[in-house]
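Lecture notes, part 5. Sequence design as translation. It can be helpful to think of inverse folding as translation between two languages: the language of shapes and the language of residues. The source text, in structure tokens, appears below.
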């Protein structure tokens, strides 16, 4: 199976890696390279990656590095001034195919941004009754048939399907937005993020907003975003100073952190 003169194994594996990063493989039917499967959108690229895998001693890291440092992976999802028409496939696409990250990645990302992620390696799985309150990586949450973690089940995570699943289903519905707006997990991580940013920036509103953007979106805010959020924080603070304000309600900055945790820019690859 791994003989260099029999490249099928290498082709299948690099195609899966490509699918992992781009959402669609060079061969769209990643579980069927036979006569009933789809033809490669770029045969030369598939063969070159397969040969690179073999020559590197079957190093998955080598192929991953080639993909993520490639021009194709580093393209933006914005069409900008491109004259090419939108393409439903990757065959002639001039932009990166925007897609939502997996449920496991989204959960771990929110915990990491909030400073709550438990980075311990190894050990027993977190039992079912403790999954929702756990800060361990999704990898360590106990998987029970018919009863996946709430976030994993809603965001198209693995199910108890008995057949092979070469490519996960990705849906985008209002339930996702409602989960991020109302679920206790997102609120908990948002409030922890607010406390973390305030400890770094103090009471300086502009610095709070700058650090918040860099921590959540890995970029500084634009001037328009900065002004809009400063206005929001000042107006909400003024409202809270009234006698009718709820002293137990979230602070304006906690509300802002909650919104940032729910942005599609955080939960999607662009």
């Amino acid at each position: 199976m791994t003989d260099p003169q029999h490249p099928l194994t290498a082709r299948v594996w690099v195609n899966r890696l490509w699918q992992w990063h781009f959402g669609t493989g060079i061969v769209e039917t990643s579980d069927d390279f036979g006569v009933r499967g789809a033809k490669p959108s770029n045969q030369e690229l598939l063969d070159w990656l397969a040969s690179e895998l073999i020559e590197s001693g079957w190093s998955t890291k080598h192929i991953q590095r080639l993909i993520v440092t490639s021009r194709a992976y580093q393209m933006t999802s914005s069409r900008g001034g491109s004259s090419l028409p939108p393409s439903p496939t990757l065959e002639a696409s001039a932009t990166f195919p925007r897609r939502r990250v997996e449920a496991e990645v989204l959960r771990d990302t929110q915990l990491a941004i909030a400073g709550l992620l438990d980075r311990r390696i190894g050990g027993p799985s977190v039992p079912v009754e403790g999954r929702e309150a756990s800060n361990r990586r999704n990898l360590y949450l106990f998987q029970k048939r018919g009863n996946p973690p709430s976030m994993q089940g809603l965001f198209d995570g693995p199910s108890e399907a008995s057949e092979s699943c070469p490519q996960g289903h990705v849906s985008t519905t209002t339930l996702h937005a409602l989960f991020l707006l109302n679920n206790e997990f997102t609120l908990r991580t948002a409030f922890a993020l607010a406390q973390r940013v305030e400890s770094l920036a103090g009471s300086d509103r502009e610095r709070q907003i700058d650090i918040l953007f860099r921590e959540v979106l890995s970029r500084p805010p634009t001037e328009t975003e900065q002004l809009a959020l400063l206005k929001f924080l000042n107006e909400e603070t003024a409202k809270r100073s009234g006698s009718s304000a709820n002293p137990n309600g979230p602070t304006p900055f906690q509300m802002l952190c909650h919104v940032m945790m729910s942005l599609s820019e955080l939960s999607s690859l662009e």
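The translated text above is only one of many valid answers, since several sequences can fold into similar shapes. The mean pLDDT is 85.
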